[in-house]
Amino acid sequence: MKIDVAYVAELARLELTDEEKAVFQPQLENIVRYVEKISSVDVSGVEPMMHGRPLVNAFREDVVRASLPAEVALANAPKRVGDEFLLPKIVEGAES
Amino acid sequence: MKLYELGIAEAQEGLAKGDFSSAELTQAIIDRYHAENEKIGAYLTFDEEGALAAARAADERRRSFDHSTIRPVDHFFGVPIAIKDLINVKGQPCTCASKILAGYVSPYDATVIRNLKANGFIPAGRVNMDEFAMGSSTENSGLGVTRNPYDLARVPGGSSGGSAAAVGGNLCIAALGTDTGGSIRQPASFCNCVGVKPSYGRVSRYGVTAFASSLDQVGPMTKSVTDAAILLKALAGHDEMDGTTPPEPVPDYVAALDGATLKGVRIGLPKEYFAVTGLDPEVKRLTDAAIRACEAAGAELVEVSLPHTEYAMAVYYIIAPAEASANLARFDGVRYGHRSAAAKDVYSLYTKSRAEGFGPEVKRRIIMGTYVLSSGYYDAYYGKAQKVRTLIKRDFDAAFAQVDALLTPCAPTPAFPFGAHQDPLTMYLNDLYTIPSALAGVCAASVPAGFTNERLPVGVQFICGGFEEAKLLRISKAFEETQK
To answer: By CA distance, what is B424's nearest residue in A?
Structure first.
């Protein structure tokens, strides 16, 4: 089993150093080899278990209630301007 | 007995009788923190002023109550509790022992914290853990080293290692931990505590930073089974903020302990758990002694089989990283947490902030989880693992049709030295006794069962069916009596 660690890290939006890639590669392949033992289990006709307990829809009354005030929600922001989170510009040529 | 040595029940009794005040009790814990924490490293931070203010308010409240009508177990005015650093307490840091959350201050209380406060407990200090609860030794903490109070050269276990070290080292009255694949029970075993992993859905996860959402549960880590019952009674119940908590009533776990006995209790010994190679001989000796103690106390021993046990580790190391990779996507440097100074655009803001903020084990699990969920692999890994998980659950259902509880080792070894498990996979194998019951969603407890010839504590594990915490605690209490 060969894992393209650089590609998967890109999917996960995680920048890895070459050194990290070299360390993770054999470790991850070792873990994947281990978990592949489930491939031999016969699961024909078996339903998947999605959760620790069979779930039904959980409803509550649809009523308006207070949420966190903007000031509180923004208190941990790395960068902000007014009541907004500030990010590097996303669209080429747009005002940042 | 020193005040910091007390458990919850003893502290409450002393408070009710007026032997000491909550402020004195809290100050004793703070003094102990100053004397011992540098050595043990259980706490990351301690809100001294906040805890003392809450304690003084509790003393005031207690003075205004008529104690002739209130039993000590009804109210727990002003007992400080150590909180694992992934549970939000308003106004306190919540870093999950990760650099990516350095400086984060919680804007709200988790439901379990609201419940604790409503029952007179004081969330006083933040205890260390493996980063984002990924690990079995607390060595993966990005913020500090926690040592085993019974041997400072050894780990406290993990991921709730700070909670276990604080309880075992008498740096707190009791603690909250979380358990995804064994993170309450294994450190409890390593540090001579009682640790209870409630059934999935019994305790709200609202305000608890998610690792693997189909597995995570908050639970008590305490100095006695009675304390675990007191704390679980406060924690458990339906929460409309967590749709996985059913509206089933919470039994009075404390009252359930009255007359606890092992007489006539059918205890199952899963043969697959005892056939494992690598079980430490001292752990085996103490587990065998625990089995004999149960038998001597009137329990009936029954051999049972959980045939899919050998696949549980593999299922877990697909499902838990998969769910973690999705849950940890929220740490992107946008709304809170670390933001890379080197980011040039939004893409590099994500990739660099995450690269700088997460430690190696978290990165490994994010990649593992992303891999098993990625196009072309989903059915073979995640989809298949969910089906094998059903088979594991059915094994437990079949076992609990025959017996009241299962008795097993809790961890294959006692606490190990720092650096003993360099390879991630061998570290993962630490959880082989605790993972199957986590996957099945049932409840389980680690209860102290004595010491090895090197004076290291070892716990045994009792497992009961889903929402059978009252039975689990009763059996644990009766076993605890046999150890006195």
So the answer is: A27
